Each structure stands twice: as C-alpha cells, then as structure tokens.
Amino acid sequence: MNEINEERTSLPVTKSLDEVTIRFAGDSGDGMQLTGMQFTNTSAVMGNDLSTLPDYPAEIRAPQGTTSGVSGFQVHFGSTKINTPGDQCDVLVAMNAAALKVNVRSLVDGGAIIVNTDGFDDKNLRLSGYTANPLLNDSLSRFKVYQVDISKLTELALQDMNLTSKIVDRTKNFFALGMMYWMYNRTPDSTVEWIDAKFKNKPDIAEANKRVLKAGWNYAETTEIFNVRYEVKAASLAPGKYRNITGNSAVALGLVAAAEKAGLDLFLGSYPITPASEILHDLSSFKRYGVKTFQAEDEIAGIASAIGASFTGALGVTTTSGPGVALKTEAIGLAVMVELPLVIVNIQRGGPSTGLPTKTEQSDLLQALYGRNGEAPVPVIAAATPSDCFDAVFEAARIAIKYMTPVMFMSDGYLGNGSEPWKLPKPEDLPDISPTFRTDPNGFLAYARDEKTLARQWAIPGTPGLEHRIGGLEKQDKTGFVNYEPENHDTMVRLRAAKIAGIVNDIPHATVEGNDRGDVLVVGWGGTYGALRTAVESQRAKGHAVSHLHLRYINPLQSNVGEILTKFKHILVPEINLGQLIKVLRERFLVPAIGYNRVAGLPFMSSEIEQAIEDVLGGKLV
Amino acid sequence: MSKLVDQVVTKDQAATVKYTSKDFQTNQDVRWCPGCGDYSILAQVQRIMPDLNIPREKIVFVSGIGCSSRFPYYMDTYGFHSIHGRATAIASGVKLARPDLSVWIVTGDGDGLSIGGNHMIHLMRRNINVNIMLFNNQIYGLTKGQYSPTSEFGKVTKSTPFGSIDYPFNPAALALGSGCSFVARSMDRDPKHMQSVLKRAAEHVGTSFVEIYQNCNVFNDGAFFQLTEKETRDENVIYLEHDKPLVFGKDRDKGLKLDGFTPSVVDLKDGIHSINDLIVHNEHDSTLAFILANMTYNQALPRPIGIFQSIERSTYDHEMTAQIARETAKKGRGTLATLLNSGETWEIQ
After folding, report:
1. How much is the pTM?
2. C or N terminus of chain A, fewer CB within 10 Å?
3. B165: distance to nearest CA of chain A, Å?
4. Residue among A288, A290, A460 whose CB faces B8 most closely
5. Which domains, and CATH codes, for chain A?
6. Nearest CA of chain B to the CA of A19: how many Å?
7. Is B121 part of a structural domain of the chain?
C-alpha cells in the first residue's frame, strides 16, 4: 500500500443526493471512456437510473496534452428518472490541464474539480494554452478544487511491482475511479470482476489495476481532503431484469432478435465507419445465432451484398453513417425497385462530407426521406433513446419484411455511444414477424401483390418452378417483366408509393406526453427525446401548458399527427439541423411551426429547450 | 440456412431431371443487336447447363448494367439484373447467404473493370465460390460507343475523337494479381472451347474468372478478328492445355519457350529447336500463369487462350459457414432467451 501522509482525524459527513452528473476528462490515451463506462456499469448495477455521453476526438491519439486530444465521458445518474446525460456536470475529474481547459465550462458554479496535479506541469500548461497555472490563481474560485497528485500516488502504489513507467501511467485512471467510488459510495466489485476477466492472461496488469483502484479508494477514505461523501439511492425502476446498454449494442441485439423472431438468418453487409462500427463488431460476435457478417470492400458492396442475401431469403441489413448512406443511395433505389426487405441503419454524425465523425447531429433526415433518384419512397423510423434503439430497429425489420421494402432506421452518435439501463424484454412480448415464402408455381407472378399490404411475394432461389428475374429496370405490373410503357410506369410509381403510405394502417397512433391541447407542442424526433422531455416536464411543473410529441415514424407519419398539431397554439420543432422535420410538417399539414435549431455537434441541453419554449410563450421566438 | 428457407428449397445438389438447353431458355425476346457476339455466349451457356446436373432452381445469374448484363433475362433460372458495377457485390451476398446455390456473374469490360473494378478484385481475393463471365468487347456498347478500360491506347471513339490516352487493363493479369484461383480466357467465335472452359469454371471450387472476347459488331467490329478468323487465327493464338507443350501455328510448327522469365517464339522446323524446348503448361503454376497472362498485349507473341490458372484454396463461403458451425458447437445455438439475457444484468424487485 502506498504511504499516506495525511491521516483522517474526523469521519466524513454523508449527504444524500437525488442525482449527480460526473464528467471524466483526460488525454485520449488516458482511458477516460473506460473509466466512465466502469462508473456507469457500477451505478447501473446499484440500481440508479442513468444516461451517458461519451465525447471523444476523431483522432485515436491526438497530440498528447493538447486541447484537441481531450476525451471526456459524462454520466448522469440518480434515484429519479434520468432522461439526459445532464446539461452541466457537478463534478469534473481532469487528468491534465487541457482536460480542465476544455471542460471547465460544462461545470456548474460551485461544482467540484478533482485534478491530477501532475498534469499541470509546465509542458502541459504550455500545450493546453494556459498562460498561468489555473491551480495557482483565483480563476477557479467558483469551484471546489481538489488537488491530488494522482500520477505520483499511482507510482507509489505500484513501486514494488517492477512495471514499466508506461504501464504504471496507464493505470492511473483507476486511481481516479477509486476516489469517485468512495465519494459516491459505490462498491468496486463489478470493476474488480471486469479487471479479472479482461486481464485474465496478464495477471500482473490485473493486479496493478486492482491495486491502484483500491489505492484511490483508500486515499479518499484516509486523507481529509474529502470531508463529504454522497449517497445516491437506487431509482424506483419497474421490476425486472436490467442491463446497461448503448444505442449501438441495442441495434445489434434488436436486429438479431427480429431475425430470430422471423425465423430468418441475419446477414449484415457493412463497412467500418464512425460512429456505427460497434454494430458490426457486436454482430460479428453473434455467430451462434447464425448471424453472417460481411465486412465489405466499401459502403456500396455492404448494401449490395445485403440485397443479394435478401434475394435468397435472409434478412439483409447494412449499417453505416451519413457519408455511407450517400454512397449506398443507388442501391437503396434498387431495393425499392426489386421490392426486397432491407434495413439500412444510419448512425448520424456531423456533416456535410466527412464533417464531425465523432459528434452527433440530425441532419440526414431529408437524405433518408428523399435522397434518391426517381420516386423512391422508403419508410423512415427513428429511435429516441439508447435502449429504444432495440424496439425501433426491430420495428424497422418488421416493416421491411412484411412490406418487402428497404427501411431506413435513424439513430445518431449520441444514441449510439450513449447508454442507459434497459429492462430486458421477454421473447414472447416481442411483436410478431411471420414471413412466408412463395412455394406454389401455379399462377406465380413475381410482382403480384397482397391486396392489403401491396407487398409482392418473396420467392427465393432454390424453390422449384418459381425461377424468375428481377432487376432495376421498370417492371410490368404483376408479371415483373421489363416494361417501358408510359401507363405501366405511372401505375408502378403509384403502387410503390401507395405501398409505403399504406403502412400507416399498421402502426400505432402517436401519443402526446402531457395534455392533448395547450399553448405549445414541442415536436421532436430521434435522439433529442431526453432533452425535450426534461424541458417540457420542467415547464409543466412551472405551470405552462406545454406538451411533447416525439415522432418515431417519419415516413409514413402516424395518422393522427395532423390532428394533434391543431390542438396547440404554437408548434415548436427543435432539431440538431437547420430545420428538416419542420419542412415535412409544414409541407404536409400547412402549420406555422417554429424551429429551434443549433448544429454544434452536441446534443441539446434541456435548459436551452426550456428557454426556447419560454421564448415561444413570450412571443420572442416566432 | 434458416428453417424457413430450408422448408421451401430443393435439398438435392444434383438434378433429378435430365435438362436440355431448351430448358434454360426464357420467353423473353433476346434484344442484342443482330450479329452480336453475346448470342454465341448465351447459346454456349445454355448448352453446358444440362451437363452441370444442377437443379435449375438452384442456379442464379447476377449481372450489372451494360449489353452483357441483359443476360439473366434470357436464362430460365433465378436472375438478378442489378446496378452498374455491383453484380459482383450482390452475387457475394447471394452466395454467402446461400452457399447451396450455383452463382454466375455476367459482366463486361466497363461494368466489371471500370465502375465495378473494386468489387471485382475483392471478390477474387476472397475466393468466393462463384463463376464470373466477363464479356470483353473493348468498348461501351449500351451507351453507344465510348472507349472502355480494355480499349487499346490510341483508340478513336466518340469520347476520344483524337485517340485514347488510357492504357488498357489486362483482365487475366488483373485476376491473377487479385489472387483469383481460376483464371481463363475464351472467345465468342470458338464455341467448343468456350463450352469446355465454362464447364471447368463451373466445376472449380472457388472464384472462377473467364474473360470472353466478344465482338461488338456495331461499335467495335472486328476487334478480335485476328484471333478468331480462320485466315489469321492459327498464327495469332496459342491454346493453353494442361500438361502439354505450348505449340501453335497452322502446321503446329511453332512453340513458346522461356528464357529466364521471358517467353519467346521458336520455330520447330529450324533444326535447332524441338518440342522438348517448349514450355509445358501447368495450370497449378502461378508464376507461369503470370508470365502467360503478360503476353496479352505483346504483338510479337501469340495471344494465350485457355486456362491460365486453376489452383485450390479454401473459399470464403466455406470458411464463413465453418466458423459459424464451430462457434455454435462451442456454445450451443443461441435463442432469443439467451440473447436477451446477455451482458451484465441485474434484477430489480
């Protein structure tokens, strides 16, 4: 054990809190994502509700010590319902000067900063652009600053282990984690288990990490530097089995679940791209579910192979982000034409072009709806929270299979990387998906349609007597033969549109959170759900007549959306783009909706949405 | 394959009926220009299909865009006329999802080597067990006569009125360089040879690539006449036959010999050279395959026609299936219940 010079003479006071937001920040090589995830999992297992926000640079190893290389992870946890990762943090753990500089602005006044003083030497100060050491002047006087030489204490904890200084340095994040575990009364058990499993074949590394974790805990317990400990009780979540899940993991599980429910094999054709790659990784590990993953040579081959697989009777899926969707555009049109099931997963990121690969945005909605040549309607479904990605992508697969159509599933970097506790569904509670393959050769026509759904039948290779040809050229109604006749083309364009529009009869009505009439209806879609909901609840608590409508189905829109909109004096549509859903609502319902738009690569803060609502109520935002 | 698929598809890999070439013809009018080399290729493919003894419903033809890519419409099998350049990528998905199918890709020099070049090389690298027929007419026909990636340097076309300044691809060398396990070349005007090569391609386990010289009588007429017509053929073409010395000429009086890695023509009647000096073709020798493929645009040497290479290498589709089987054997087939209980879970009472 390391030497502790200061011995505690008084016991710390324990205070109870409803919710806390902690931000871990350091160099991109400091392991802050891991530290944050460990704190998150431990809190989840202890029964807190929570929401997380990883915030990392696009560069894997950006220049050390600079502000561009800072990686952060924010976790908001509590004994109450948690909808967002928190507008601001209460506690900032800063492993170096750059981390402090970048993140101090997200700390609440009076918040706590725990700094690794070793990260504030001359070199770090110079690289981060500080002209004076902020720990030595009064620039941080609004906060409570705890100065701990984490690097030195870590070194001391491991001095008898003969480890290289590089390895020692890599464990210091666990010292910070240990301190935070003590401060928030978390048991380190699940992290210890994780370390043992992760470093099964490297016992000395496992030992070092566990020692440092414990040293951090003991340091906080023994020294008098911290005189308050906090307790955040378990939230009252519905009974059941839970796990913590990121949006991307939920997509992977949702796709496998849909394929299993349908009795189909899942085929993923994909190309690595941030922030969607985790779905490819997760699905690649699900071999024993019969999942086939194909890391293709490019985005186009990713979707093309998925279409090929769907042709043969698999559930074809391709996963990507906006730039990848741009490349897949022509193939999506092909899937529309050949009328095969396909799920296209878009984990949106900042654009245009390469844009902001690791930042979140909602600017691909119009691309999803309209970004193809010709009249090529595609259902568009958006997830609202990380765990909702499971249900939403399951629904996307259900519609794709039932209606023989490509479906665009929209998530974003914030949902994909963010996490929350998820109550595991029971297999029998999942919606029914029951595809059938055509087998009867008598009277078989490749483009004959089901009267109700307008879907054509799935006739797969290997079935005797159903040999037929499909392709991207216009099809003759019913027969599916190539056909260039004017009237036939008009018929087919309308049939394809009617098929997608008709899905409206197969989806539930939209529901409003709050009263179904009032002064302001906040309408959103996708990953802004948590911020919008928190803002609306807060406004309602203040007595304002505000409600929230969050759209899962963007195409087709649910049948009662138009009617809901008529019940409110003002419609406010906040989006992390310059106004895309609002265009759809205005065009479809001719409503004078008001946009609130900020495109900063960051999720909305609930406070700014509250401000926007107040501005609408006060006539300042029109 | 999933239970649902298993319930409807033919299990037998061998056909139970005896087909004729007619069984592979569709009711669609064939719409290539009269005199097009594609007619011959279609006829040869329909002719060899019965010999493959594969149930018709288990055969899938996938094409991209271009004149050649109309092919699936004329084959009474399953077919997919897709988008420009992507037949190889779509066919990869078809074969990986359903290794039980016999998958044929029909493409051209523009579709397969220009817009679809990337998918082509990666398919061959992976050695997915499919058959590629690349109709090479050295021109863009469907778009009415622009130069293609196999057009010769200096070619005058609508888009190169002062002559092309592009060097052509050598498709056989590209295929070999991509690691393709079966690489061959044939010609539209040599039906017997084409049939034998296509049969070998079908039998080959792994990616087979067959370049077929095809005359476009509208936009590039006679591009291969030196190689295909009676008067010139024998002096300009050398047929590659496994285990046989490389002999050519009307009187079979010339041969190919190697000086180091450089092939040259020898006269078997000059009193100096004999058949023992000649290269003996070996389909399993990759080095030799490269040397022979590189003769393609060398005017001093005859053009090699036949199978450059046929080697055995485990296929991607086999490896994929085997890996799934291994992991499933280790942990048991996953179910919805195991899936929904994975990860670190906790109970809330």
Report:
1. 0.95
2. C
3. 29
4. A460
5. 13-231 (3.40.920.10), 243-429 (3.40.50.970), 512-617 (3.40.50.920)
6. 19
7. yes
